[in-house]
Every structure is written in structure tokens, then in C-alpha cells.
């Protein structure tokens, strides 16, 4: 053993024994009490702010004010973006918790550097921190009535959501070694490769992230609304001028960007791997692109029976194909001859009913889009609230999908380019280059 250690230190650690032994015998990361406290404190703040928000709305009867409709059409879409982000982060944190609980080697599958992967507490801290600042901005920006003299709202409070969005972007791209720099840069690199598809070889983190973005279409449209509202709208008077033909055209473009990225990734893998499954997967995303475009077009032709029928047929076809692909290819289930009937031979969760419940939820949540073409109306719910609710259900569905997708990858190596039986060598990178405490 000593000879092996000496050889490793000499050839792979530049004769630096301390550095070499830290690589060969890495110390287990200890959960810091400050992290647990900060996560719990931020979660408590989020809960308290939500209670305060509900209490203020109820006591002041804000939702019955004359400016309620104007607020829902302008400010609500701006703040809903942060809700989508926080919800997705919470789902990812839950996935990390259960991946660790059921021994899914997610850090190796994603290719995180050893010791830099985030735990679920750290991810929750990020999500709750964003939630706290977003809710503080909402509370500071609850004005429903304009100043009677100037007929305008306070400029500073109207700009709060924009300031928060810019602050989040700045923190994300800062090069300084704080606030999980390696994870931030890993995320940015994956985003770049998703946008540059198919110019780069497709790896699991890239197409996994692109799939996550397909569930954030409404968030991407919210970013488009930010640009239009603050760039060309009259935000001081909360006048929404984002209803012109250019804005409507970009609603189509923004919505299909994640699906086009996945389609190009599938074509790249089809060309490289000669695997026909990637071609079928590409067809799935093409059908989804058509369905999204037709549903968006129908939203501009409400009441037109032809547009409704076309939107329903295309969306149903895409949803059925996607559901089949989720179960059979992504999750590896529905094997009738398996020893676990209609599931698969290897299962990490001992309770088989969990898989059947997940499949049922996947179907129900995937077909939540049906309200957009059947025009369900609830008197107690504003249209923007309905849109946000449907988008949130899709994010929850994606969170459920993510757990079983990675479980299947861990067990069966579905990606066919990473063998999990091999042990990653510790000298592929310099661990001292980037450490997140």
C-alpha cells in the first residue's frame, strides 16, 4: 500500500505528499451547522412572508381593488418567474435527497468534480434565499392604486422585480470563488452547450438540463415579458403594450427553443452513435414543437373550432408519444416479462406501488395542458393564475421524471456512453483548483 501511495504521489501529485494523500484519502465532507441553520432560517422566512402576504391581501381586500386586473396582467407575470425558479430548485433538492437515500450515484453520472457537488440542504438554501427576496419585493410592490395626482406608481418599487432578476444573473456569472462557483460554472457551461447544440458532443448533463428547460417554457416567456415590459412598456403606469405582432411572434420562438435544442441534440447523437432510438426521440420533440406552436396559435384564435381541433389532436399525439417514451425508454418500465411485472428487473425503491403512482401522476400532470384548449374558467381564479398553476404542475412532473430517469441511468446505463461499474480515477483534474466550502 505504501509503495502504491508513493508511486501515485510521485507521478500524479508532483511529489507533493500532502496533496496526493488528500486525493487518495479524501476526507468526508461534514455538514456544517451554519448551513442547516441558514436553510431552516430561510425556509422559516419564506413561510412567514407567505403568511404575511396572505394576511395583507385579506385584511386590505386588495384583490377586490380597481387595480387588481392591471396588477395581474403586469406585475404577477413578473414575479411568477421567481416562483417557477424556486419550485424547480425545490424539486431538484428533493431529487438529491432521494437519490442519496436510494444510493443513486448522481454526482458521478452528472460528472461533478469530487467534493464539489451540492447537497440538498445547499440547494434548498439557494431556492429559499431567492424566495425570500422575491417575497420581500412582492410585499413592497403590492400597491393596487396609482397616485391620484401623477396617476403613476412609485418608480423604485415598480423596478424591484427587474433589480432582483439582474442581481440573480450577476451572482450566477460572477467569477469569484464564493456561493458555489464550480456549480454555477458547471450550470453555465451546460446552458451554453444546450444553446450551441449540435456543435458539441452531447453528454448526459447537457440533455438532462435541456429536458428541464422544456418544462420551463412559461418562465422563458416571462423573461420575454420582462424585456418587453421594461424596454418598451410604460411600467410607471403599469401599461402592458406587449401585445403587438412582434411580441406574439417571439412567443412562438421562445416556447420552442428548449425543444429545438433537444431535437438538435438527438440528431447529433443519431449521427454519432447510429442509434435509431435517437431518431425516434427526435420525432417526439418535433411533434411537441408542432403541438406547442398550434396551442400558441389557438390562444390568439379563441373560439375558432378549427384551431381548437387541430391544437387538441397535435397536443394529444405529442403527449401520448412522450408519455410512452417516459415510461419505456427514460424510466425503463412496462416490461411485461420482468420479474417485477410491468416494471423492470432492478428497482431501487422496494415499494413497487411507488412506480405505478409515479406513472399515473406523470400521465395526469402531462395532460394538464388540456385546460389551455378547452378554456376551463374558474370564477375565483384569474387567467394568469391558471397559466401559472399549469406551468407549476409541469415543473412538478419534471421533478418526478428526473428521479426515475436518473435511477434508470444508474441501474441500466441507458445512455450507453458511461460505464458505472468502473471507478473514476482521482487524477483527472486538480482538486485544488476549485473548492466550494
In short:
By secondary structure, the protein is mostly helical. The chain has helices spanning 2-12, 17-24, 33-60, 68-101, 106-110, 120-140, 155-158, 160-173, 181-195, 204-214, 217-231, 245-273, 276-299, 305-330, 353-366, 370-374, 383-412.
What overall geometry do the principal axes of the alpha carbons give?
globular
The helix-and-strand class reads: mainly alpha
Helix-strand pattern: HHHHHHHHHHHHHHHHH
Unreliable stretches (pLDDT < 50, length at least 5) are 414-423, 427-437
What oligomerization state is this entry in?
A: single chain
Tally of alpha and pi helices: 17
Distance between the termini: 31 Å
Question: Rg, please?
Answer: 24 Å
**Structure summary, number of beta strands:** 0
Helix content: 55-70%
Estimate the mean pLDDT confidence: 86
The main sheet comes to: none
Beta content: under 5%
Keywords: Membrane, Transmembrane, Transmembrane helix
GO cellular component, one term: plasma membrane
Subcellular location: Membrane
Membrane topology: Multi-pass membrane protein
Walk me through what this model shows.
Residues 242-437 form the EXS domain. This protein is mostly helical. Helices cover 67% and strands 0% of the residues. The longest helix is centred in the N-terminal third of the chain and has 34 residues, at 68-101.
Amino acid at each position: 500500500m505504501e509503495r502504491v501511495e508513493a508511486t501515485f504521489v510521485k507521478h500524479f501529485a508532483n511529489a507533493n505528499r500532502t496533496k496526493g494523500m488528500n486525493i487518495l484519502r479524501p476526507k468526508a465532507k461534514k455538514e456544517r451547522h451554519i448551513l442547516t441553520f441558514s436553510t431552516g432560517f430561510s425556509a422559516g422566512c419564506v413561510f412567514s412572508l407567505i403568511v404575511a402576504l396572505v394576511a395583507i391581501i385579506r385584511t386590505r381586500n386588495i384583490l377586490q381593488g380597481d387595480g387588481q386586473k392591471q396588477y395581474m396582467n403586469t406585475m404577477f407575470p413578473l414575479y411568477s418567474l421567481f416562483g417557477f425558479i424556486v419550485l424547480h430548485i425545490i424539486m431538484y433538492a428533493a431529487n438529491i435527497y432521494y437519490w442519496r437515500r436510494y444510493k443513486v450515484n448522481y454526482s458521478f453520472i452528472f460528472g461533478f468534480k469530487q467534493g464539489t457537488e451540492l447537497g440538498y440542504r445547499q440547494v434548498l438554501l439557494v431556492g429559499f434565499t431567492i424566495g425570500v427576496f422575491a417575497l420581500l419585493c412582492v410585499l413592497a410592490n403590492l400597491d393596487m392604486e396609482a397616485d391620484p395626482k401623477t396617476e403613476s406608481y412609485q418608480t423604485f418599487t415598480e423596478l424591484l422585480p427587474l433589480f432582483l432578476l439582474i442581481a440573480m444573473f450577476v451572482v450566477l456569472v460572477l467569477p469569484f470563488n464564493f456561493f458555489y462557483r464550480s456549480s454555477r460554472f458547471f450550470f453555465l457551461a451546460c446552458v451554453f452547450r444546450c444553446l450551441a447544440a449540435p456543435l458539441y458532443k452531447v453528454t448526459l448533463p447537457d440533455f438532462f438540463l435541456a429536458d428541464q428547460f422544456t418544462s420551463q417554457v412559461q418562465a422563458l416567456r416571462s423573461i420575454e415579458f420582462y424585456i418587453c415590459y421594461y424596454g418598451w412598456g410604460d411600467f410607471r403606469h403599469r401599461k402592458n403594450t406587449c401585445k403587438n405582432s412582434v411580441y406574439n411572434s417571439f412567443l412562438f420562438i421562445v416556447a420552442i427553443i428548449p425543444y429545438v435544442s433537444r431535437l438538435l441534440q438527438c440528431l447529433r447523437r443519431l449521427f454519432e452513435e447510429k442509434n435509431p432510438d435517437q431518431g425516434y426521440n427526435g420525432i417526439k420533440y418535433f411533434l411537441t414543437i408542432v403541438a406547442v406552436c398550434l396551442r400558441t396559435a389557438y390562444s390568439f384564435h379563441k373560439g375558432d373550432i378549427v384551431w381548437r381541433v387541430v391544437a387538441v389532436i397535435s397536443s394529444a399525439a405529442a403527449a401520448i408519444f412522450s408519455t410512452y417514451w417516459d415510461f419505456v425508454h427514460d424510466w425503463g418500465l412496462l416490461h411485461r416479462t420482468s420479474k417485477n411485472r410491468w416494471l423492470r428487473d432492478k428497482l431501487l425503491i422496494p415499494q413497487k406501488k411507488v412506480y405505478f403512482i409515479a406513472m399515473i401522476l406523470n400521465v395526469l400532470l402531462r395532460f394538464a395542458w388540456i385546460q389551455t384548449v378547452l378554456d376551463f374558467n374558474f370564477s375565483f381564479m384569474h387567467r394568469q393564475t391558471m397559466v401559472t398553476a399549469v406551468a407549476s404542475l409541469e415543473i412538478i412532473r419534471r421533478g418526478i421524471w428526473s428521479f426515475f430517469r436518473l435511477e434508470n441511468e444508474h441501474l441500466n446505463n441507458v445512455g450507453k456512453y458511461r460505464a458505472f461499474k468502473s471507478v473514476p480515477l482521482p487524477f483527472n483534474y486538480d482538486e485544488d483548483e476549485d473548492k466550494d466550502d
